[in-house]
C-alpha cells in the first residue's frame, strides 16, 4: 500500500497552527493584564522607566519588566520588582530605585500568584490590602524597605503555602497576628525595624520549618516563649532592640542548629546560661546592653568557635574565664562596660584584641589595657 505523503503546504499549515495554539496559550490572561494595569496605576516610578515596558501592545507575560507567567495557562505567577538590583536597567541608570504610591487591592485578582516582591523602593506607603491573604498559591511575600503602615493582615495564616514573609524596614504597627503561627511552611520571617508590639505568640514554636526569625528593632515585650525550644530548624534568631525581659532560658543553649542569636538592647536579667557559651554551634552571640549579672560561665573548650561574642554593657562580675584561651576561634570579643576584675588571660584570642574590648570594667588589668595587675 502506498504511503500518503503530506504536501509541503499541509506541513506548513500544521506548523503554523501549532505555533498559533502555543502562542495563544502562552499569552497573558486578559483579566490578569487588567489587574496589573490597575496595580500600576497606584504607583509612580520616576527614574528608571520600569513601567514603560508595561504597555497595552505588549504581552505582559513576555515583555513586561518583573512579570512572569505560567507557560501553559498564561496566568501571572510572579511579580518581582526590587528597588535594589543588579539588573541592566539599574546598572545603566547608576542609581537604586525609588517608587511612591500604594499597593492597589487589584493585585488580589492575580489568583495564580506565587511570588509577590515589591521591595526596597523606599517610598511606597499605605497598608497591605487585607485581600492579599486570599492568594492561596502565594509562597513569597516580600514588601521590605518601604514606608508601609498599618498592621500585618490578621488572616495571614490563610497563606498556607507561604515560605517567605519579609516586611522589614517599614513603619508597621500592631501585634504579631495569632494566625501567623499557622504558617507551617514558613522558612524565613523578617519583621525587622518596624513598630510591632505585644508579646511573641506563645505557640511561636509551631513554625517547625522556620530557619530564620528576624524580629529586631521593634517594640516587642514579654519573655522568650518556651515553645521556641522545639524549633529544630531555627538557625538565626534576632530579637535585638526590643523590650524582651526575664532570664535567658537554659534551653536556648540546647537548640541544635541555632548559630546566630542576637538579644542585645533588651531588658534581660539574671545569669548567662552556661549552655549558651558551651554550645559549639553558635557563631554569633550578642547579649550586650541588657541587665545580665553573675559571672561569665567557665565552659569554653576546644570546640568553641565564635565569629563574634558580645557581652558588653551588662553587670557581669568576677574574672574572665581561663578556659576562653582554649577556644578554637574567637574573632570579635567585647566584654567592656561590666564589673569584671582580675588579669586578662594571655594567648589567643586575647593577643589580637584591643583595649576597647575590655574597657570600663571594675578592675581588669593586664593585656591590652596596659594596666599592671
CATH homolog superfamily: Ribonuclease Inhibitor
- Give average pLDDT, whole number: 91
Tally of strands: 23
Q: Sheet with the most strands?
A: 12 strands, mixed
Total count of helical runs of at least 4 residues: 4
Oligomer: single chain
Elements, N to C (H/E): HHEEEHEEEEEEEEEEEEEHEEEEEEE
Structure described in brief:
Residues 30-70 form the Leucine-rich repeat-containing N-terminal plant-type domain. By secondary structure, the protein is α/β, with parallel strands linked by helices.
Which helices and strands occur, and which strands form pairs?
Layout: H1 8-26, H2 30-41, E1 43-44, E2 67-69, E3 76-82, H3 88-93, E4 99-101, E5 115-119, E6 122-124, E7 140-142, E8 164-166, E9 188-190, E10 197-199, E11 212-214, E12 219-221, E13 236-238, E14 245-247, E15 260-262, E16 267-270, H4 274-278, E17 284-286, E18 291-295, E19 305-310, E20 315-318, E21 329-334, E22 339-343, E23 363-365
Parallel strand pairs: 3-5, 4-6, 5-7, 7-8, 8-9, 9-11, 10-12, 11-13, 13-15, 14-16, 15-17, 16-18, 17-19, 18-20, 19-21, 20-22, 22-23
Antiparallel strand pairs: 1-4, 2-3
Keywords:
373 residues, alpha/beta, Leucine-rich repeat, LRR (right-handed beta-alpha superhelix), twelve-stranded mixed β-sheet, six-stranded parallel β-sheet, 4 helices, 23% strand, disordered N terminus, transmembrane helix, leucine-rich repeat
Walk me through the structure:
With 373 residues, the chain is of the alpha/beta class. The chain has one domain (28-369): Ribonuclease Inhibitor (Leucine-rich repeat, LRR (right-handed beta-alpha superhelix), Alpha-Beta Horseshoe). 11% of the residues lie in helices and 23% in strands. It has 4 helices and 23 strands. A 12-stranded mixed β-sheet has the order 2-3-5-7-8-9-11-13-15-17-19-21, with no helix packed on it. The longest helix has 19 residues, at 8-26. The radius of gyration is 27 Å and the shape is elongated. The protein starts with 7 loop residues before the first helix and ends in an 8-residue tail after the last strand. 36% of the residues are buried. This is Leucine-rich repeat-containing N-terminal plant-type domain-containing protein. Pfam families: LRR_1, LRR_8, LRRNT_2.
Amino acid at each position: 500500500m502506498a504511503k500518503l505523503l503530506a504536501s509541503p503546504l499541509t506541513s506548513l499549515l500544521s506548523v503554523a497552527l501549532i505555533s498559533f495554539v502555543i502562542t495563544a496559550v502562552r499569552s497573558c490572561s486578559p483579566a490578569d493584564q487588567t489587574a496589573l494595569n490597575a496595580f500600576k496605576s497606584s504607583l509612580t516610578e520616576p527614574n528608571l522607566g520600569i513601567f514603560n515596558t508595561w504597555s497595552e501592545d505588549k504581552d505582559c507575560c513576555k515583555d513586561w519588566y518583573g512579570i512572569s507567567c505560567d507557560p501553559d495557562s498564561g496566568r501571572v505567577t510572579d511579580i518581582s520588582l526590587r528597588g535594589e538590583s543588579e539588573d541592566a536597567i539599574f546598572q545603566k541608570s547608576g542609581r537604586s530605585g525609588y517608587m511612591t504610591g500604594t499597593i492597589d487591592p487589584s493585585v488580589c485578582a492575580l489568583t495564580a500568584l506565587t511570588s509577590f516582591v515589591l521591595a526596597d523602593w523606599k517610598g511606597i506607603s499605605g497598608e497591605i490590602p487585607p485581600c492579599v491573604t486570599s492568594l492561596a498559591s502565594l509562597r513569597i511575600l516580600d514588601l521590605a524597605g518601604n514606608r508601609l503602615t498599618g498592621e500585618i493582615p490578621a488572616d495571614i495564616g490563610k497563606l498556607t503555602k507561604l515560605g517567605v514573609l519579609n516586611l522589614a524596614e517599614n513603619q508597621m504597627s500592631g501585634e504579631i497576628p495569632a494566625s501567623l503561627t499557622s504558617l507551617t511552611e514558613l522558612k524565613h520571617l523578617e519583621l525587622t525595624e518596624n513598630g510591632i508590639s505585644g508579646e511573641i505568640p506563645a505557640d511561636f514554636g509551631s513554625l517547625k520549618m522556620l530557619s530564620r526569625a528576624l524580629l529586631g528593632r521593634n517594640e516587642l515585650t514579654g519573655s522568650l516563649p518556651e515553645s521556641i525550644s522545639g524549633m529544630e530548624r531555627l538557625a538565626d534568631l534576632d530579637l535585638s532592640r526590643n523590650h524582651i525581659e526575664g532570664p535567658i532560658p537554659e534551653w536556648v543553649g540546647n537548640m541544635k542548629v541555632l548559630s546566630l542569636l542576637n538579644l542585645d538592647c533588651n531588658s534581660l536579667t539574671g545569669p548567662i546560661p552556661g549552655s549558651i557559651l558551651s554550645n559549639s554551634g553558635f557563631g554569633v552571640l550578642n547579649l550586650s546592653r541588657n541587665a545580665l549579672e553573675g559571672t561569665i560561665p567557665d565552659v569554653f573548650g576546644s570546640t568553641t568557635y565564635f565569629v563574634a561574642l558580645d557581652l558588653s554593657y551588662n553587670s557581669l562580675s568576677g574574672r574572665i574565664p581561663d578556659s576562653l584561651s582554649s577556644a578554637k576561634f574567637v574573632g570579635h570579643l567585647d566584654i567592656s562596660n561590666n564589673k569584671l576584675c582580675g588579669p586578662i588571660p594571655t594567648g589567643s584570642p586575647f593577643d589580637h584584641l584591643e583595649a576597647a574590648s575590655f574597657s570600663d570594667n571594675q578592675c581588669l588589668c593586664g593585656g591590652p589595657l596596659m594596666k599592671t595587675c
